[in-house]
Amino acid sequence: MTTAILSALVEEQQGLLQLLVNPERVRRGGRSYWRGELQGRNVVLALSRIGKVAAATTATALIEVFGVQRIVFTGVAGGVGAGVQVGDVVVASAFVQHDMDSSPLFPRYQIPQYGRASFDCDPALTALLLEATHEGLTRARGEFHENNLYQNPGVHQGLIASGDRFVSGAAELQVLQNGLLAAGYAPLAVEMEGAAVAQVCFDYGVPFAAVRTISDRADDQAHVDFPTFVKEVASRYALAIVQNLMPML
Ligand code: ADE
């Protein structure tokens, strides 16, 4: 059984790469894929790159070329649900594409020819990821300085909305949320890749789970201190979560 660990950002992958046993790098489609073992489990590490097309390409190669049997995604996201704060973590239960609109041919958000707008994550893998997240955050927090801002992160589980747009304005977010809510979708977070990977995994019947650390509130301050946050918080969380997940697989 080989598990793909798909990271959104290079900083998140670095810690995993350092732990990879018997690393072997394979180049495909302008990307690097790293085969090896993490805590005795066969893994392939890859970067999704940014946006839905790039992420779908990486996910497809992971399945078709590397034969992975499940995909776990880690990354950052903008928090949009009530009470979802910067420094919190969201484990996805399902994904929707907030920029999919083939109306009037199909209902807004519906993926043409799928008869659905959202894709569920694998419940069993997601349950393990949730457990690993709780344990991982306890571990990562222990490494923080005692007055670190992110000492008590909340863990949420729910819908995440993906689209090819970095959402960075309160007015823009309001429009996005109103549209989704009118169709019955209330996302906890927004990002740019998860729904694409979920759709590829649906096509191939490959279990998928995803976790996102909240780096911003998708509002007018969404770009502030992004690199620092990724390095200091999100990368540590991702590493600790994956390290806790591995023995569970
Ligand atoms: N990833 C992290 N923050 C995001 C945002 N505000 N919009 C889209 N993707 C993100």
How would you describe what is shown here?
- There is one protein chain.
- This protein has 249 residues and is an alpha/beta fold.
- It has a single domain, classed as 3-Layer(aba) Sandwich (Rossmann fold).
- The chain has helices spanning 10-19, 52-64, 123-142, 170-182, 194-204, 226-245, and strands at 2-7, 21-28, 31-38, 41-47, 70-79, 89-97, 118-120, 155-162, 189-191, 208-216.
- The chain has a five-stranded mixed barrel, surrounded by four helices.
- The relative contact order is 0.23.
- The model has no long low-confidence stretch (mean pLDDT 94).
Topology:
Elements: E1 2-7, H1 10-19, E2 21-28, E3 31-38, E4 41-47, H2 52-64, E5 70-79, E6 89-97, E7 118-120, H3 123-142, E8 155-162, H4 170-182, E9 189-191, H5 194-204, E10 208-216, H6 226-245
Parallel strand pairs: 1-4, 1-5, 5-10, 6-8, 8-9
Antiparallel strand pairs: 2-3, 3-4, 5-9, 6-7, 6-10
Helix pairs in contact: 1-6, 2-5, 3-6
This protein binds adenine (ADE).
Structure, briefly:
It is built from 6 helices and 10 strands, in the order E-H-E-E-E-H-E-E-E-H-E-H-E-H-E-H. It has 249 residues and is an alpha/beta fold. It has a 5-stranded mixed beta barrel, surrounded by 4 helices.
Strand arrangement across the biggest beta sheet? 5-9-8-6-10
CATH fold field value: Rossmann fold
Work out the strand percent.
Answer: 25-35%
Output mean pLDDT. Answer: 94
The run of helices and strands is EHEEEHEEEHEHEHEH
Q: What best-fitting shape do the alpha-carbon axes yield?
A: globular
User: Which stretches of 5+ consecutive residues score pLDDT under 50?
Assistant: none
Structural class: alpha/beta
Number of domains: 1
Report the radius of gyration as a whole number of Å.
Answer: 17 Å
Give the name of the CATH architecture.
3-Layer(aba) Sandwich
Helix content: 25-40%
Distinct compounds present: adenine
The CATH homologous superfamily name equals: Nucleoside phosphorylase domain
Tell me how many strands there are: 10
